[in-house]
């Protein structure tokens, strides 16, 4: 059986976090990362490495509440 809700939810949160950090200045991204534990930093940085470009539209859509 496939687990859907929790893993997909965590993966999406990691992706959005990566997109947000890539959109920030280096200084601001460093401040955010300094507040996270090592395992979370690793997950987010690995996701950031997978992202090639971010369109303006995707950036706006990713951060809607």
UniProtKB/TrEMBL annotation:
This is Flagellar motor switch protein FliG N-terminal domain-containing protein. Residues 13-59 form the Flagellar motor switch protein FliG N-terminal domain. Pfam families: FliG_N (PF14842). SUPFAM superfamilies: FliG (SSF48029).
């Amino acid at each position: 059986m496939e687990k859907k809700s929790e893993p997909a939810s965590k993966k999406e949160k990691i992706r959005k976090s990566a997109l947000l950090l890539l959109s920030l200045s280096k200084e601001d991204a460093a401040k955010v990362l300094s507040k996270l534990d090592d395992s979370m930093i690793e997950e987010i940085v690995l996701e950031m490495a997978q992202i090639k470009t971010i369109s303006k539209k995707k950036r706006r859509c990713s951060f809607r509440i």
